[in-house]
Design brief:
Blueprint: E1 12-20, E2 26-32, E3 38-41, H1 46-57, H2 63-87, E4 93-97, H3 103-110, E5 114-118, E6 130-131, E7 145-151, H4 160-169, E8 171-182, H5 187-192, E9 206-207, H6 210-220, E10 224-229, H7 238-244, H8 250-257, H9 262-284, E11 290-296
Bound molecules: zinc ion.
Zinc ion (ZN) binds at residues 4, 6-7, 9, 32, 34-35, 37.
Length: 303
């Protein structure tokens, strides 16, 4: 019996089992019979997660391709930056939750925002740009931010309800929580099931549909949904390719060759271009591989 971490309901149904990792462990996915939230089962211990993250999660930097890849990434992130500009007042204060190396913080500041990052596993050399802390221990008073961004972060959290509440407390009245997660209600998950790359066993502990994501945000106090989309130029074209050919993942290739050879990088890019139309078409029908939701807190004194 697995209690739902979203609604606390005691009963769940098996969705997928015998999910193997790159190491020797096996996991299942279970769906709450009340709210539909899907969890990894069992939840890996902190020690086990450290073993996985230490082993292969972070990519070592590769100076031969990183310059090109960074520019390309920026191009693919441009539509999301436009959405942020539409949702957040010019010059607004933004917290990038799960900021990693601080790249997005840097771009937002270059665009005139007052941005800072927070990430307990910060890999940023700039300690002023990315604070190494969990959101529950963020060194900011409540109501500090116009927006909190959570891109591909909430699926990793052992207690998403408490963490999202902590994030929403940091928002000003009328502030926006803007999150992107893999979409379990996608066409791709239907096709690939246990081979769907964004399952990322055992790194992803939570798997969301539009309904469960809205419930998470609403329960935390960000209850006015102002944006929902199902496509990311950065993620969507790669997930069907990596579900079919996991060996093409930059992570895999760097582990085997110590670097990402340009011809392979080019081949991976071509595959993604072929996958683009399918990924874009699925998104039109709200069945894309990503789910991006923006929700605002109440602006009135009743909050
Ligand atoms: Zn539930």
């Amino acid at each position: 019996m697995v209690q739902c971490r979203l609604c606390r309901h005691p009963r769940s149904a098996l969705l997928l089992d015998s999910l193997r990792t790159g190491q020797t462990d096996t996991f299942a996915l279970r769906r709450c019979r009340n709210c539909g939230f899907v969890t990894l089962d069992p939840l890996p211990s902190g020690e086990m997660l450290r073993r996985y993250y230490d082993d292969d999660y972070w990519l070592p930097t590769d100076p031969t391709t990183d310059g090109i890849m960074a520019r390309f990434l920026m191009l693919r992130m441009a539509p999301v930056l436009r959405e942020i500009k539409r949702l957040v007042p010019a010059g607004g204060r933004i917290l990038d939750w799960g900021a990693g190396d601080g790249r997005l913080v840097h771009w937002l500041n270059a665009d005139g925002f007052d941005a800072v990052g927070i990430d307990p596993y910060s890999r940023s050399a700039d300690n002023d740009a990315v604070i190494a802390a969990a959101i529950e221990n963020a060194p900011f008073p409540g109501g500090s931010f116009d927006a909190v961004l959570a891109f591909h972060l909430i699926e990793h959290l052992p207690d998403p309800v408490e963490a999202v509440r902590a994030a929403v407390r940091l928002l000003k009245p009328g502030g926006v929580l803007f999150a992107e997660v893999p979409n379990l209600e996608s066409l791709e998950f239907r096709i690939f099931r246990s081979r769907w790359q964004p399952l990322e066993i055992p790194y992803h502990l939570n798997h969301f549909t539009p309904d469960t994501m809205i419930r998470l945000m609403t329960d935390a106090g960000a209850d006015r949904i102002v944006h929902m989309s199902f496509f990311s130029h950065r993620v969507s074209p790669s997930t069907p390719v990596l579900s079919m050919a996991p060996g093409l993942a930059p992570k895999e290739i760097r582990r085997r060759h110590r670097r990402y050879p340009l011809p392979l990088s080019f081949g991976y890019l071509i595959c993604q271009l072929v996958a683009y139309p399918m990924a874009a078409a699925a998104a039109v029908f709200r069945k894309g591989a990503v789910l991006r939701v923006a929700a605002k807190t109440r602006s009135g004194p009743s909050r």
